[in-house]
Design goal:
With about 170 residues, the chain is an alpha/beta fold. The chain has seven helices and six strands; from the N terminus they run βαβαβαβααβαβα.
């Protein structure tokens, strides 16, 4: 199955739910017989979403390009190299014809932290084939990315709290 028209979506803002929205889109895509590629720019490790997504087999591919630590200050050369590999993987996935939906998870944050210039995201947006949906998540989306996107959702903090007991019961760690 292919998409007639793929859009560029951005999920940004300080509120929770950006990655969750992208994963919801992934679920809907898989349910429609589409294939999804997800590049995680800031994560490394066996998170709960990785375990869940592995249940979809070849319909969902996830690759991680984070080094497992929060980038503070100027990124290390290793951080920048990992992000560069992620950008290459995104371009390959977009143009391979193998995927209908391509997600740059925390792509906005990676640019904001200086892992790569925002021009890389803009270039990827320009390169997107007509029949592929591109999703870019992460707080701090650059105004140029917002301007070029077809759909932008800003998650806003209204009421955020963490109740360890409730979260632990459902297997979520802070």
């Amino acid at each position: 199955m292919t998409l007639k028209k793929g859009y560029i979506q951005v999920y940004t803002g300080n509120g929770k739910g950006k990655t969750t929205a992208a994963l919801g889109l992934t679920l809907r895509a898989v349910g429609s017989g589409l294939k999804v590629y997800i590049a995680q720019f800031m994560k490394s490790g066996d998170y709960s979403e990785i375990k869940a997504l592995s249940q979809f087999g070849k319909q969902v591919t996830v690759e991680q390009f984070g080094l497992g630590h929060f980038v503070k200050g100027k990124p290390t050369p290793e951080d920048a190299y990992a992000a560069k590999k992620g950008l290459q993987a995104i371009r390959k996935a977009l143009n391979s014809g193998d995927y209908n939906v391509v997600i740059m998870e925390e792509g906005n944050v990676a640019a904001m932290c200086g892992l790569f210039p925002v021009e890389e995201i803009l270039s990827i947006m320009s390169e997107k084939p007509e029949s592929v949906e591109l999703v870019i998540t992460g707080r701090g989306a650059d105004p140029k990315v917002i301007e070029r996107a077809d759909l932008v959702t800003e998650m806003m903090e209204v009421k955020h709290y963490y109740e360890a007991g409730v979260m632990a019961r459902v297997g979520i760690e802070k």
